[in-house]
Amino acid sequence: MERSVATRLHCVLVHGTFANDATWVDSDSPLAKSLLRLEPGAVSLSNFRWTGANTHAARVQAANDLAEHLETLVSEDPDSRVLLVGHSHGGNIILRAAHAIPDHLRAGVVCLASPFFHVRLRSTAPIFWMLSGALIAIFATFSGFVMANLARLLEYLPLTWLGQVIDWFPSFPSSVSSIGRVTSSFGGAVAAIFMTLAIMFVVGVSRIGAKYAGQQIASSRWEALQPTSIRTLCMWLAPDEAYWGLNAARTMVEWAHHVVFVATRYGLPAVTVIAAVGTFWFGWSRGMDGAANSAEARAIAGAMPAMQLGGLAMLLVPLLLIGFAALLSVIRVIATGTYRFSDFAWLDIQTQRLPQINTSLITARPLPLNSGGFLDNVRAAIPFLSGPIFHSRLYNDPRAFEEIFDWYSS
């Protein structure tokens, strides 16, 4: 670290992913030299190098290590302010680590071409539907056996009075015995009631918005890189490959999750209602036919197929769609650096130009490729011929140096 006799500002430079040997963080780089203008004769420069691995865990560990480094820096010189400068994912690291700097010593944070992850919880409605579908299918599988045995039990009970009540309903065929009428109608009615309660349960709990443990764990894992609310300057070039690549990966995967959500919100309720109506209908009509032939077991079993189909539809349709989305998430695993497929099932991880902090603290400075004429702009838009890739140009761009100076001085 280079220190002046009367240091008033510490500048810490942090590289990005795959760049642990970056030279722009060295004290003799053009960017580092430009920072000396911020407080002439009173600026100290240092860098923080981390593994540069493209994983969420590596970035969290780097942020924790940088926070410890900043605590040491502040303790050694408690009167100097601290300015953090990060490129690419280095911006995520410095924004998280900035919490270690006392408020009165925070000079700010400068993020160069940093892709910020915004995380929001997904709807858990598909999970509720799948669990309810499994419950309905299981109930339908075993209830036929239970109710058939109940029918046999009713044959030995004195239900003359109940038979007389049933006789009041002219819709029952006269050839059907009282016991047959009771058991067959009981089968269809109970099945329909169960389906109705299942619908009420799913809708009710979904509206409550309860969180599953898996979602809470995934959310807390990403909160480990939650940015600090601090004065921040964000700069980028419009055709940044890293930013657009991350967004392209999300777009390719999110449509599958969108299909899951739409199918859950609009399609599956319709399937459930149809299954409930079908259950009651089969339980009534087929139950009547079976009871007329004194085959109560077959009559009650006739109420179950619609429930089984409805339950399996509720279980398998979103499961298959989520599975397909998880398969596509291989792209996002590479892009975001998290190897937990479950994160993409529980969370929607978006890439934005600006961090998730108070917007009043953020100064956004998108820079054009070139400020010259048309031909200059065309030439500047060709990577490798006009310079490094767009993502790695800002820390060598004099315009960025001037933006930092103006922002710091304001």
Secondary-structure class: alpha/beta
Number of DSSP E strands = 8
Question: Order of strands side by side in the largest beta sheet?
Answer: 2-1-3-4-6-8
- Report the end-to-end length measured between terminal Cα atoms: 27 Å
The average pLDDT is 75
Helix content: 55-70%
Describe the protein in words:
It is a single chain. The strands form two sheets. This protein has a six-stranded parallel beta sheet, with helices on both faces. The longest helix is centred in the middle third of the chain and has 52 residues, at 241-292. It contains 14 helices and eight strands. The protein is of the alpha/beta class and 410 residues long. Strand 3 (81-87), helix 3 and strand 4 form a beta-alpha-beta unit. The model is unreliable at 1-5, 165-176 and 290-297 (pLDDT under 50). The protein is elongated. Helix 4 packs antiparallel against helix 6 (178-208) and helix 6 (178-208) packs antiparallel against helix 8 (241-292). It has two domains: 9-114 and 368-409, Alpha/Beta hydrolase fold, catalytic domain (Rossmann fold); 125-225 and 252-348, no CATH class.
